[in-house]
Amino acid sequence: MPLFGLGVYQSSLSDTVLPVRAALDEGCRLIDSTCSDGNKAVVGLALRKSGLDRGEVFVTTKLEPASYGPEAALTAFELSMSKLKIQVLDLYPLHWPVPLHFAITCAAWKVSEGLLRDGRVQAPRSLQFHAGAACVG
């Protein structure tokens, strides 16, 4: 995983392609397409137009809490992948825990583990907490 990357949080669709392409042209190899930004398709397009092999760029997006739960998490993942038009996601973290509904957080974590087993995600992670330890069982 590269130490530095480009995040596209809250960038408009028209303000996404050029910065992503410029970052990739200058050697940036990590692109973070956040969970709710709505510009994954543009990030995917910029990746394809870069001329770089997919394995050269570390791509991450997050699973937002509104999509936690077994069915919702898988649906959100499939939607992200269809927008990015990639086969494997390098990092797919859960964005943050939902303490009042922790069961759905654990369900989302288990979906991430399944995606790892299936080779569709290289690394599931959680931000703000350690879901793997909290959701054992």
From TrEMBL:
The keyword Ion transport does not apply. Residues 19-122 form the NADP-dependent oxidoreductase domain. InterPro entries: AKR (IPR020471), NAD(P)_OxRdtase_dom_sf (IPR036812), NADP_OxRdtase_dom (IPR023210). The keyword Oxidoreductase applies. Keywords: NADP, Oxidoreductase. One of its GO terms (molecular function) is oxidoreductase activity, acting on the CH-OH group of donors, NAD or NADP as acceptor. Belongs to the aldo/keto reductase family. PANTHER family: 2,5-DIKETO-D-GLUCONIC ACID REDUCTASE (PTHR43827), NADP-DEPENDENT OXIDOREDUCTASE DOMAIN-CONTAINING PROTEIN (PTHR43827:SF3). This is Aldo/keto reductase family protein. It comes from Allosediminivita pacifica.
